[in-house]
Amino acid sequence: MNNNEKIKVAITAGIVSVILLILVIFLAVTTKKDAVDDDTKLSENITDYASFSEEGAGKVDDSAVLASSEDGADSASTSGSSEVMSYSEYVDSVAGSVSGNSFYETKAAVLRDVYNGLTFDKNAQLKEMMTYWEDGNMEAVRDLAHLERFEVMSYQLGGTDFFYYYGETNAEGKPNGKGIAVYANDQYYYGEWAEGVRSGNGTWVAFYPSYSRYVVTEHLYTGSWSADLPNGEGQEHYDYNAEYMNKQDFYLQNAIGTFKDGKYNGDMYIISVDKDDHSTEWYGKCIDGNWEQIINTTKDKNGKIPVLYEREDNKSYYYMTSEGSQNNGIDGMITGGSVAK
Protein backbone atom coordinates (compact mmCIF):
# COMPACT_ATOMS: atom_id res chain seq x y z
CA MET A 1 0.00 0.00 0.00
CA ASN A 2 1.52 3.34 -1.09
CA ASN A 3 1.43 6.56 0.93
CA ASN A 4 -1.60 7.98 -0.91
CA GLU A 5 -3.63 4.87 -0.19
CA LYS A 6 -2.62 4.96 3.47
CA ILE A 7 -3.72 8.60 3.74
CA LYS A 8 -7.09 7.77 2.17
CA VAL A 9 -7.64 4.88 4.63
CA ALA A 10 -6.73 7.11 7.58
CA ILE A 11 -9.11 9.87 6.46
CA THR A 12 -11.95 7.39 5.92
CA ALA A 13 -11.43 5.85 9.38
CA GLY A 14 -11.43 9.30 10.95
CA ILE A 15 -14.71 10.26 9.27
CA VAL A 16 -16.37 7.00 10.40
CA SER A 17 -15.18 7.59 13.97
CA VAL A 18 -16.64 11.10 14.03
CA ILE A 19 -20.00 9.86 12.69
CA LEU A 20 -20.15 7.10 15.34
CA LEU A 21 -19.32 9.60 18.10
CA ILE A 22 -22.09 11.95 16.95
CA LEU A 23 -24.55 9.02 16.88
CA VAL A 24 -23.64 7.94 20.44
CA ILE A 25 -24.05 11.51 21.76
CA PHE A 26 -27.43 11.86 19.98
CA LEU A 27 -28.75 8.59 21.48
CA ALA A 28 -27.58 9.54 24.97
CA VAL A 29 -29.25 12.96 24.82
CA THR A 30 -32.47 11.50 23.35
CA THR A 31 -32.68 8.80 26.06
CA LYS A 32 -32.22 11.35 28.81
CA LYS A 33 -34.85 13.65 27.30
CA ASP A 34 -37.36 10.78 27.06
CA ALA A 35 -36.85 9.96 30.74
CA VAL A 36 -37.43 13.58 31.73
CA ASP A 37 -40.51 13.76 29.47
CA ASP A 38 -42.00 10.66 31.14
CA ASP A 39 -41.74 12.26 34.58
CA THR A 40 -43.17 15.52 33.22
CA LYS A 41 -46.18 13.74 31.70
CA LEU A 42 -46.91 11.95 34.97
CA SER A 43 -46.70 15.24 36.85
CA GLU A 44 -49.05 16.91 34.35
CA ASN A 45 -51.57 14.07 34.68
CA ILE A 46 -51.59 14.46 38.44
CA THR A 47 -52.08 18.21 38.16
CA ASP A 48 -54.79 18.04 35.49
CA TYR A 49 -56.91 15.14 36.70
CA ALA A 50 -56.36 14.66 40.44
CA SER A 51 -57.59 17.56 42.52
CA PHE A 52 -55.41 16.94 45.55
CA SER A 53 -52.48 19.31 46.15
CA GLU A 54 -49.20 18.32 47.72
CA GLU A 55 -47.46 20.83 49.96
CA GLY A 56 -43.76 21.40 49.50
CA ALA A 57 -41.56 18.72 51.02
CA GLY A 58 -40.02 19.87 54.28
CA LYS A 59 -36.48 18.75 54.98
CA VAL A 60 -35.71 16.63 58.01
CA ASP A 61 -32.96 17.98 60.21
CA ASP A 62 -29.90 15.75 60.49
CA SER A 63 -30.49 15.59 64.24
CA ALA A 64 -34.00 14.13 63.82
CA VAL A 65 -34.54 11.02 65.93
CA LEU A 66 -34.42 7.79 63.91
CA ALA A 67 -36.94 5.05 64.49
CA SER A 68 -34.26 2.38 64.21
CA SER A 69 -31.97 1.98 67.21
CA GLU A 70 -29.26 0.16 65.28
CA ASP A 71 -26.17 1.96 64.01
CA GLY A 72 -23.70 0.98 61.33
CA ALA A 73 -23.98 -1.47 58.46
CA ASP A 74 -26.19 -4.54 58.41
CA SER A 75 -25.10 -7.83 56.87
CA ALA A 76 -27.38 -9.69 54.49
CA SER A 77 -28.14 -13.39 54.66
CA THR A 78 -30.33 -15.69 52.58
CA SER A 79 -31.97 -17.52 55.46
CA GLY A 80 -35.02 -15.23 55.41
CA SER A 81 -38.62 -16.34 55.76
CA SER A 82 -39.96 -19.57 54.33
CA GLU A 83 -42.55 -17.44 52.51
CA VAL A 84 -39.92 -15.81 50.30
CA MET A 85 -39.95 -17.22 46.76
CA SER A 86 -36.62 -17.78 45.04
CA TYR A 87 -35.98 -15.72 41.94
CA SER A 88 -35.99 -18.77 39.66
CA GLU A 89 -39.36 -19.87 41.07
CA TYR A 90 -40.68 -16.35 40.55
CA VAL A 91 -39.61 -16.26 36.90
CA ASP A 92 -41.40 -19.55 36.28
CA SER A 93 -44.54 -18.35 38.04
CA VAL A 94 -45.00 -15.15 36.02
CA ALA A 95 -43.87 -16.26 32.58
CA GLY A 96 -46.83 -16.07 30.23
CA SER A 97 -49.21 -14.85 32.94
CA VAL A 98 -52.42 -13.50 31.41
CA SER A 99 -55.41 -12.07 33.26
CA GLY A 100 -57.96 -11.85 30.46
CA ASN A 101 -60.83 -10.68 32.66
CA SER A 102 -60.08 -7.17 33.90
CA PHE A 103 -56.88 -5.17 34.20
CA TYR A 104 -53.58 -6.97 33.90
CA GLU A 105 -52.97 -9.04 37.03
CA THR A 106 -50.37 -7.39 39.25
CA LYS A 107 -47.80 -9.51 41.03
CA ALA A 108 -45.36 -8.33 43.66
CA ALA A 109 -41.79 -7.61 42.64
CA VAL A 110 -39.44 -10.39 43.72
CA LEU A 111 -35.71 -9.89 44.20
CA ARG A 112 -32.91 -12.32 43.42
CA ASP A 113 -31.76 -14.50 46.30
CA VAL A 114 -28.04 -13.84 45.65
CA TYR A 115 -27.19 -11.27 48.30
CA ASN A 116 -25.38 -13.43 50.84
CA GLY A 117 -22.70 -11.43 52.65
CA LEU A 118 -23.56 -8.08 51.04
CA THR A 119 -23.68 -5.29 53.62
CA PHE A 120 -25.96 -2.27 53.74
CA ASP A 121 -26.56 0.72 55.98
CA LYS A 122 -30.30 1.30 56.09
CA ASN A 123 -30.16 4.70 57.79
CA ALA A 124 -27.53 6.13 55.46
CA GLN A 125 -29.18 4.68 52.36
CA LEU A 126 -32.69 5.89 53.21
CA LYS A 127 -31.33 9.33 54.06
CA GLU A 128 -29.56 9.39 50.68
CA MET A 129 -32.72 8.42 48.81
CA MET A 130 -34.84 10.88 50.81
CA THR A 131 -32.60 13.76 49.72
CA TYR A 132 -33.30 13.04 46.05
CA TRP A 133 -37.02 12.53 46.71
CA GLU A 134 -37.21 15.91 48.46
CA ASP A 135 -35.59 17.51 45.43
CA GLY A 136 -38.12 15.87 43.10
CA ASN A 137 -35.38 13.86 41.36
CA MET A 138 -37.26 10.61 40.77
CA GLU A 139 -34.75 9.42 38.20
CA ALA A 140 -32.08 9.35 40.92
CA VAL A 141 -34.53 7.59 43.28
CA ARG A 142 -35.08 4.89 40.65
CA ASP A 143 -31.35 4.48 40.06
CA LEU A 144 -30.75 3.97 43.78
CA ALA A 145 -33.61 1.48 44.16
CA HIS A 146 -32.04 -0.75 41.50
CA LEU A 147 -28.61 -0.86 43.16
CA GLU A 148 -27.73 -4.10 44.94
CA ARG A 149 -27.15 -2.43 48.30
CA PHE A 150 -30.72 -1.07 48.15
CA GLU A 151 -32.22 -4.29 46.84
CA VAL A 152 -30.65 -6.33 49.63
CA MET A 153 -32.04 -3.88 52.19
CA SER A 154 -35.53 -4.66 50.91
CA TYR A 155 -34.80 -8.38 50.49
CA GLN A 156 -34.05 -8.64 54.21
CA LEU A 157 -37.68 -7.75 54.92
CA GLY A 158 -39.09 -10.46 52.63
CA GLY A 159 -42.12 -12.35 53.92
CA THR A 160 -42.94 -9.71 56.56
CA ASP A 161 -44.81 -6.42 56.86
CA PHE A 162 -41.95 -4.77 58.78
CA PHE A 163 -40.23 -1.74 57.26
CA TYR A 164 -37.04 0.27 57.73
CA TYR A 165 -37.64 3.98 58.36
CA TYR A 166 -35.74 7.25 58.31
CA GLY A 167 -37.27 10.58 59.24
CA GLU A 168 -39.22 12.43 61.89
CA THR A 169 -40.74 10.58 64.85
CA ASN A 170 -42.93 11.31 67.85
CA ALA A 171 -41.97 11.00 71.51
CA GLU A 172 -42.60 7.25 71.38
CA GLY A 173 -40.24 6.81 68.42
CA LYS A 174 -43.00 6.13 65.91
CA PRO A 175 -42.88 7.67 62.42
CA ASN A 176 -44.57 11.05 62.65
CA GLY A 177 -44.15 13.96 60.23
CA LYS A 178 -42.09 13.60 57.07
CA GLY A 179 -40.15 10.40 56.40
CA ILE A 180 -39.19 7.57 54.07
CA ALA A 181 -39.61 3.80 54.43
CA VAL A 182 -38.57 0.69 52.56
CA TYR A 183 -40.61 -2.52 52.62
CA ALA A 184 -40.16 -6.00 51.17
CA ASN A 185 -40.61 -6.55 47.42
CA ASP A 186 -38.68 -3.36 46.58
CA GLN A 187 -41.46 -1.08 47.82
CA TYR A 188 -40.85 2.46 49.13
CA TYR A 189 -42.95 5.24 50.60
CA TYR A 190 -42.01 8.89 50.98
CA GLY A 191 -44.32 11.44 52.54
CA GLU A 192 -46.30 12.22 55.65
CA TRP A 193 -46.86 9.97 58.67
CA ALA A 194 -48.98 10.14 61.81
CA GLU A 195 -48.55 7.94 64.89
CA GLY A 196 -46.58 5.28 63.03
CA VAL A 197 -48.71 4.96 59.88
CA ARG A 198 -48.81 6.65 56.48
CA SER A 199 -51.17 9.60 56.75
CA GLY A 200 -51.40 12.85 54.78
CA ASN A 201 -49.84 13.22 51.33
CA GLY A 202 -47.26 10.79 50.02
CA THR A 203 -46.01 8.52 47.25
CA TRP A 204 -45.67 4.73 47.26
CA VAL A 205 -43.64 2.96 44.58
CA ALA A 206 -42.96 -0.69 43.84
CA PHE A 207 -39.81 -0.93 41.72
CA TYR A 208 -39.52 -4.11 39.65
CA PRO A 209 -35.92 -5.30 39.18
CA SER A 210 -34.24 -4.57 35.87
CA TYR A 211 -33.48 -8.31 35.50
CA SER A 212 -37.14 -9.27 35.95
CA ARG A 213 -39.02 -10.92 33.09
CA TYR A 214 -42.33 -9.56 34.39
CA VAL A 215 -44.32 -7.10 32.29
CA VAL A 216 -44.56 -4.42 35.02
CA THR A 217 -41.46 -2.28 35.57
CA GLU A 218 -42.91 0.19 38.10
CA HIS A 219 -46.16 0.58 40.08
CA LEU A 220 -46.90 3.88 41.82
CA TYR A 221 -49.57 5.64 43.87
CA THR A 222 -49.35 9.30 44.82
CA GLY A 223 -51.96 11.27 46.71
CA SER A 224 -53.83 11.24 50.00
CA TRP A 225 -53.39 8.65 52.75
CA SER A 226 -54.99 7.75 56.07
CA ALA A 227 -54.81 4.65 58.28
CA ASP A 228 -51.78 3.45 56.24
CA LEU A 229 -53.85 3.18 53.04
CA PRO A 230 -54.67 5.38 50.03
CA ASN A 231 -57.71 7.40 51.07
CA GLY A 232 -58.91 10.47 49.20
CA GLU A 233 -57.81 11.98 45.89
CA GLY A 234 -54.89 10.34 44.14
CA GLN A 235 -53.40 8.63 41.12
CA GLU A 236 -52.24 5.09 40.48
CA HIS A 237 -49.67 4.65 37.70
CA TYR A 238 -47.96 1.72 35.93
CA ASP A 239 -44.96 1.45 33.63
CA TYR A 240 -44.50 -1.68 31.48
CA ASN A 241 -41.90 -3.53 29.47
CA ALA A 242 -43.44 -3.61 25.98
CA GLU A 243 -41.44 -6.74 25.15
CA TYR A 244 -43.61 -8.77 27.54
CA MET A 245 -46.97 -7.16 26.71
CA ASN A 246 -49.54 -9.02 24.63
CA LYS A 247 -52.53 -8.07 22.47
CA GLN A 248 -55.18 -9.64 24.71
CA ASP A 249 -54.83 -7.88 28.04
CA PHE A 250 -56.00 -4.47 29.24
CA TYR A 251 -52.96 -2.62 30.57
CA LEU A 252 -53.84 0.10 33.06
CA GLN A 253 -51.48 3.06 32.91
CA ASN A 254 -53.29 5.59 35.11
CA ALA A 255 -56.28 5.45 37.44
CA ILE A 256 -57.13 8.93 38.68
CA GLY A 257 -59.89 9.77 41.14
CA THR A 258 -60.89 8.95 44.70
CA PHE A 259 -59.63 6.00 46.73
CA LYS A 260 -61.10 4.36 49.83
CA ASP A 261 -58.88 2.02 51.82
CA GLY A 262 -56.85 1.35 48.68
CA LYS A 263 -59.88 0.66 46.45
CA TYR A 264 -61.28 2.80 43.64
CA ASN A 265 -64.29 4.70 44.95
CA GLY A 266 -66.29 7.13 42.84
CA ASP A 267 -65.92 8.50 39.32
CA MET A 268 -62.63 7.29 37.84
CA TYR A 269 -60.61 8.53 34.89
CA ILE A 270 -58.68 5.62 33.36
CA ILE A 271 -55.86 5.63 30.82
CA SER A 272 -54.91 2.33 29.23
CA VAL A 273 -51.87 1.64 27.08
CA ASP A 274 -51.15 -1.09 24.55
CA LYS A 275 -48.07 -2.89 23.32
CA ASP A 276 -47.48 -0.22 20.66
CA ASP A 277 -47.61 2.57 23.28
CA HIS A 278 -51.00 3.84 22.10
CA SER A 279 -53.14 5.18 24.94
CA THR A 280 -56.92 5.25 25.34
CA GLU A 281 -58.92 7.35 27.81
CA TRP A 282 -61.92 5.94 29.67
CA TYR A 283 -64.51 6.91 32.28
CA GLY A 284 -66.29 4.70 34.77
CA LYS A 285 -67.71 4.56 38.27
CA CYS A 286 -66.42 2.27 40.97
CA ILE A 287 -67.93 1.90 44.46
CA ASP A 288 -65.76 0.29 47.16
CA GLY A 289 -63.70 -1.35 44.42
CA ASN A 290 -66.68 -2.68 42.44
CA TRP A 291 -67.21 -1.31 38.93
CA GLU A 292 -70.79 -0.33 38.14
CA GLN A 293 -72.40 -1.27 34.87
CA ILE A 294 -72.79 1.72 32.54
CA ILE A 295 -76.40 2.87 32.49
CA ASN A 296 -78.58 1.87 29.54
CA THR A 297 -76.24 -0.96 28.51
CA THR A 298 -76.45 -4.74 28.44
CA LYS A 299 -73.95 -7.52 28.97
CA ASP A 300 -72.24 -9.00 25.94
CA LYS A 301 -72.87 -12.51 24.59
CA ASN A 302 -70.32 -13.93 27.06
CA GLY A 303 -71.98 -12.31 30.05
CA LYS A 304 -69.31 -9.64 30.50
CA ILE A 305 -70.32 -6.26 31.93
CA PRO A 306 -69.64 -2.88 30.24
CA VAL A 307 -67.91 -0.87 32.97
CA LEU A 308 -65.87 1.77 31.10
CA TYR A 309 -66.65 3.98 28.11
CA GLU A 310 -64.18 5.83 25.90
CA ARG A 311 -63.77 9.55 26.34
CA GLU A 312 -63.87 10.13 22.57
CA ASP A 313 -66.68 7.65 21.87
CA ASN A 314 -69.15 7.04 24.68
CA LYS A 315 -70.63 4.08 22.78
CA SER A 316 -67.32 2.22 22.88
CA TYR A 317 -67.13 0.13 26.04
CA TYR A 318 -64.67 -1.99 27.93
CA TYR A 319 -66.21 -5.20 29.31
CA MET A 320 -65.21 -7.20 32.40
CA THR A 321 -66.36 -10.48 33.86
CA SER A 322 -68.47 -10.23 37.00
CA GLU A 323 -65.53 -11.50 39.04
CA GLY A 324 -63.07 -9.14 37.35
CA SER A 325 -65.26 -6.12 38.04
CA GLN A 326 -65.08 -6.71 41.80
CA ASN A 327 -62.43 -5.70 44.33
CA ASN A 328 -60.52 -3.28 42.07
CA GLY A 329 -57.84 -1.09 43.57
CA ILE A 330 -54.13 -0.92 44.24
CA ASP A 331 -52.80 -4.48 44.33
CA GLY A 332 -49.61 -5.72 45.92
CA MET A 333 -49.11 -2.90 48.42
CA ILE A 334 -47.67 -3.98 51.78
CA THR A 335 -49.65 -2.36 54.61
CA GLY A 336 -49.61 -2.40 58.39
CA GLY A 337 -46.53 -3.57 60.22
CA SER A 338 -44.08 -1.60 62.28
CA VAL A 339 -40.51 -0.37 62.12
CA ALA A 340 -37.93 -3.19 62.02
CA LYS A 341 -35.26 -2.80 64.68
TrEMBL record:
Keywords: Membrane, Repeat, Transmembrane, Transmembrane helix. It comes from the Bacteria. InterPro entries: MORN. The chain crosses the membrane at residues 7-29. This is MORN repeat-containing protein. It comes from Butyrivibrio hungatei.
